Amino acid sequence: MFDKVLIANRGEIALRVLRACRELGIQTVAVHSTADADAMHVRLADESVCIGPPPARDSYLNIPAIVAACEITGAEAVHPGYGFLSENARFADILTEHSIKFIGPSAEHIRIMGDKITAKLTAKELGIPVVPGSEGGIGDFAEARKVAADIGYPVIIKATAGGGGRGMKVAHSEHDLEIAMSTAQSEAKAAFGNGDVYIEKYLQKPRHIEIQVLGDGKGRAVHLGERDCSLQRRHQKIWEEAHSPALNAHQRDEIGNRVAAAMAKLGYEGVGTIEFLYENNEFYFIEMNTRLQVEHPVTEAITGLDLVQEQLRVAAGGDLPYTQEDITFSGHAIECRINAENPTTFAPSPGLVNAVHFPGGLGCRVDSALYAGYRIPPYYDSLIGKLIVSGKSRTECMMRLRRALSEFVIEGIETTIPLFQQLLTEPDIIDGHYDIHWLEQYLARQV
Ligand code: ADP
Asked: Residues 107-130: pLDDT tens digits?
């Protein structure tokens, strides 16, 4: 096992990784921007290094500064968390060149899955069902028209380099296609520096269901069940649960085993998530995330595994200590992402947090780096905490969630907690009847 790990991230995920390291007796190094000098991840780490000014491109994305921080502190490995450099193949390569272990898959696997077209082709070759669409990138409008006519409208134009829900445009008819394509291309060029796009069938009432996998990089892999992340605003998840209210054990085993076999064949190392849209009992691959995800705690709640410790063990060269038969599921779990935002307009609400009280009790976990007196800087993501509740059944979980939300105190800023309280009164949410469009339609009805 490693003696010292550098955590190249901030906020709740930096704390999450730090906790896993500490339990394994690993020393931790925090890195931070000048805006985060007082952050909790810096306070709790064994050592910390300032890596630059507030903008992420100058600090949390500053590869030379992070490599230098490893060298100064003698860290042998880097955990990238999620976001920032977690899916940056060049970063993984540079660390390898400096004999520092990147805790995650190989740079090659990050590259393959980071390009959505290559990812789809690879998934198809590995026997994973994909959304019908163009075989590769779309060159010009004539080709787009032909593909769209073949698969049938509506279609979605997506950026090859896409992420974070950006660079996606829906066309309901040939009439919309040209404008959808040029908007998606220019958005993709502006956001990712790569204007390449491809076309997919636009599914009208799917759920977003993803499979968590864990591989040892030596040809063994297991799946840890699914998460249902259909409740989304602007293609961003806000509520995740395991199991999905839409799947039975047989369906779970079938898709899970198929994905685990594919990852074993690929020789995938570490944790990863294969994301699907699920409609009419069919799964359609949309992308793979080659990193730990925000919503990983719901899987931890139903499997009893610590996914970050599993990542660390595999990265240190360990074998998977179990087979698929050893993975068992118990109960139900739900995560709510709490953002520093106005709960109706979603306008960011950074600033001074005067008072904090987190809910507790059986089956209640809060992952957050907030504390009373902390000033949330305006430079980063608005996620300030995650509430994860678990229970024997979905019903018990919903009751616990209602109770836990009512105990939360975060004073001085606005948060999205009231939105979740409101959602818990909706019959569709109570019954688990929602698809990826449900939340947007619900929010549109509120204004
Ligand atoms: P990103 O990498 O930007 O998150 P994804 O490919 O994972 O993009 O898609 C994000 C979300 O966009 C999905 O969860 C879903 O809500 C929606 N989406 C993506 N592809 C389709 C599709 N073919 N049909 C309908 N909705 C889609």
From this structure: 999 999 999 999 999 999 999 999
pLDDT in tens, 273-293: 999 999 999 999 999 999 999
SS3 257: helix
- Residue 291 is among the residues annotated as catalytic for this protein: yes
**What ligand 1 atom has the least distance to the C-alpha of 166?**
3
Work out whether strand 409-411 and strand 355-357 pair parallel, antiparallel, or are unpaired. Answer: antiparallel
In this structure, the number of other CB atoms found within 10 A of the CB of residue 337 comes to: 21
Residue with CA at minimum distance from ligand 1 atom 23: 202
Q: Which atom of ligand 1 is nearest to the CA of 164?
A: 3
| Prior bond of 243 cis (ω within 30°) | yes
Would you state the pLDDT for residue 163? 81
Mutate which of 228, 235, 291, 437 for ligand 1? The one with the most ligand atoms within 8 Å of its CB, which is: 235
Take residue 446 and report the two structure tokens written for it.
């509120």
Is the CB of 169 inside a 6 Å radius of any atom of ligand 1?
no
312 CA distance to ligand 1 middle (Å): 30
Of 237, 215, 211, nearest to 225 by C-alpha is 211
